[in-house]
Amino acid sequence: MTNELARRTVLLGGIAGLSLTASACSVTGGGKSKGGSGSGKGTISALFMKQAGYSEADIHGMIASFESKHPDIKVKPTFVAYEALHDKVVTAAPAGTYDVELIDVIWPAEFASGGLVTDITSKMPEDWHTRMLGGALNTAEYQDKYYGVPWGPSTKLFYYNTAMLQKIGASKADLDTWDHVLAVSRKLKSHGVCKYPIAWSWAQAEALICDYAQLLGAFGGSFLDSAGKLHLDSDAGVKTLTWMCQTLKDGLTNPGSTTFLEDDVSKSMAQGQTAFSLNWDSTYRDLNDRSISKVVGKNGVMATPKGPSGKQPGVNGAMALSIAKSSKNQDAAWKFIEYVTGEAIQERYIKSSASNWKASYDKPKVIATNKPVFDAYKVALRETILRPAVPGYNKISQGLQVEIQKALLGKKTPSKALRDAQAASNT
Amino acid sequence: MMRPGRTQEFPQGLAVRPKKSNGQGKMAFWLLLPALVAVFGIVIYPVVRTLVISLFEVNSVMATDTPFVGLGNYEKVLSDAGFWAAIGRTFYFTVTSTVLELVLGLALAGLLNARIRGRWVLRTIVVIPWAVPTIVNAALWKGIFNAQYGALNGILSQLGFQSDYRAWLGSPTAAMNAVIVADVWKTTPLVAFFLLAGLASIPNDIYEAAKLDRASRVRTFFSVTLPLLVPSVSIVLVLRTVEAFKVFDIIYGMTRGGPANGTQTIAYYAYTSAFSDQSYGMGSAISYLIVIVILLLSAVYLRALRRSEMSLL
């Protein structure tokens, strides 16, 4: 009996010891996953998202173009939904599965401090600082270092169904403020033109925070106080959330919005079931695509309407291409990033995403390819609202998503929900 | 007296082991080696590694600075209201889905066991939901429940049962029930086939005896069929409870834990902590707490079922 017990103890101890040895005495094993410059040739793996911005076909086109210019480098792309992108980057990090990774503007602090992405400050040419839009360049900046190259500045624009507006004798000029949008929505509803005129992406996801941020900016608020500390339960925040809840109560917002992501909102607009929505810049391309839209030529785009504060900032929703710290072929990865973020490529695919480069905005030929979006951008990018650039952003955002949803579903008052979100962010 | 089907127990030290020559022992070792390597690599190593990680504060998958916190992560988790809320939701999901699957599975098994023409076609069709991958099943039901273009809203409106489209996944309770419906749709066929095997093993002469005794159909079901199905039911109960308690993929595909965390089960909570928040220590601690709950549940079941003479366990 004692022998048996001793044998089991030794076995368990041995397994525990082996487990630690196998992870090179590090709890995570992350320390040994060191990347390298590589030969600058060979095959690289790249992780992209399959959602807003550049489409899968766009990216395949860019890769084909890159490979024809660099025949000694092959690019193997992987596409995931935006909602899976963060976790995919995290879980792939120790194994070094991807060389190039698309990251959101809200993740550089977390990924840089966690050692998941490479500092590329020294690789960036000096003239990029003057040739690139200031707001774009900072997309993947953390503590004065750059961890990625922006792949198009992006913000949510306001889309409207022109055919529906015509039916009640309204026009774009009537949509300059959120109050006016609600007035037009009431008219659309009372005339039976549209049952729920506005659709939002208010599912429990980052999409909700993007919509909330844009409205928060219009109400004159911010996620941070004057001292730069997180301040989720500000007066402007409570007013914003109260306004959101009211549009649901009044039946102006589609009740399905609490389950919608941007894609659902875009589909609802494309099916002619929604009059107004906020969505990313590539939505204009999709609404005018005959294969997926019933409202081709019947929609307009403009910067987000003004709020009570008179402001109309767009939420900064830019993405960036980073090099994974565990990549063994970082030089080849950089060549690819440099190519696809270049002025020529960005202008070629301007209908899917805006350009990083100042010069693009002075080229009539480029502007003419997507003029309505360019016009909206001119206003929307005058001022932007940022989500907090802190390492624990994901957790803060998730807490805020849950609390905002509780208010939207009538489980809590807006002030209590935001107070609880603030309290949760402090733990 | 020895129970049928059980092996004879030898007194301590008297167990008889077949003698093997040295050559046979070596051969056995080499044959077992691939299986041992696989078991170590995909079961033992991750299990022990997770236990080790749960004792450290790990805030990034690539972290090198990971202070030892002992049971600190467990204390933190157990004092977190979110953990207990997730446990509550998981119990609701587990109990409701398991009961529904058992009841519906039993009815379906009865139907599949009936002597009807084309029975094999019916059996083939019934197994289809089980053959659908869970993540596909989740996407399917997400589409069916969609507030704007879902089939359920379309059918109910066409039939005049509702005038307005409903957001079936729009409130925490409705969303949880919708997830349960999707899970029941997928898993009931498995339960039915387990019970069908049980039904097929019941000797026909018992039913004939019941008939001679003029027992009604209901009486026959409760006095003959159900007691003799206890072994199959017990297996299904243990399997489904454990599986349902670990539910993750259908939640990930349908609701991602929303709305307002209304469908966040304990496994999803562990996933969010580990991968979205990158709190690997916390995520590992939650995983171990899930294991403890499942072990406790299994122990309670096994104890209860061992008392039953009809149980196979």
From TrEMBL, chain A:
The keyword Disulfide bond is assigned to this record: no
Entry keywords, A to Z: Signal, Transport
Short name of one Pfam family: SBP_bac_1
Segment forming the signal sequence: 1-24
Top-level taxon: Bacteria
Family annotation (InterPro entries): Bact_solute-bd_prot1 (IPR050490), SBP (IPR006059)
Family matches, as PANTHER family: ABC TRANSPORTER PERIPLASMIC-BINDING PROTEIN YCJN-RELATED, ARABINOSE-BINDING PROTEIN-RELATED
Protein family according to the UniProt entry: Belongs to the bacterial solute-binding protein 1 family.
Name of this protein: ABC transporter substrate-binding protein
Originating species: Flexivirga endophytica
Taxonomic lineage of the native organism: Bacteria, Bacillati, Actinomycetota, Actinomycetes, Micrococcales
Automatic annotation (TrEMBL), chain B:
One annotated GO biological process: transmembrane transport
Cellular component GO terms, alphabetical: plasma membrane
Main location per the UniProt record: membrane
Keywords: Cell membrane, Membrane, Transmembrane, Transmembrane helix, Transport
SUPFAM superfamilies: MetI-like
UniProt-listed InterPro entries: MetI-like, MetI-like_sf
Membrane-traversing stretches: 27-48, 91-113, 120-141, 219-239, 285-305
Family annotation (CDD domains): TM_PBP2
Annotated membrane topology: Multi-pass membrane protein
Protein location: Cell membrane
UniProt record similarity statement: Belongs to the binding-protein-dependent transport system permease family.
PANTHER family according to UniProt: BLR7065 PROTEIN (PTHR43005), INTEGRAL MEMBRANE SUGAR TRANSPORT PROTEIN (PTHR43005:SF2)
Name this protein carries in UniProt: ABC transporter permease
